Amino acid sequence: MDPQAHRTRAPLAGAGVVLALLLAGCSSLNPGTSDAADTAAQFHTALSSGDAQAACSLLAPGTVEKLEDGSDGSCAQKLGQLQLDPASAVQQSQAFGSNAQVQLDADTVFLTLSGDRWKITAAGCTSRGEKPYDCEVEGG
User: Which UniProt keywords apply (predicted)?
Assistant: First the structure.
């Protein structure tokens, strides 16, 4: 074996190990993921306990506006009428800068960062494959 070739491979192998460690730690490079998941879970907990007003407080302003738009009734009244499927267990959560997606056992929730808090922009969402999600609650 050529001694020069061995010296070249050693730094490359070391770089590969460092890269693997960095990729394994990507979750720490994805700030806000757990906070977004907490907000989505709080939303569904509020709905399950019948506290639609608390659930509305977790919605982004544009989402509240669109939910209330066009007919009589407050956000809480309209949210209570939708009867979204109960969801409790977070399956996966990803944050992408100021946006996040949280997949629960029976819902997918989309959020945006507003100041230092996550606010829900869409909920009651189901995947449609390559098409955009179909959401019961969504902002304008």
Answer: Signal
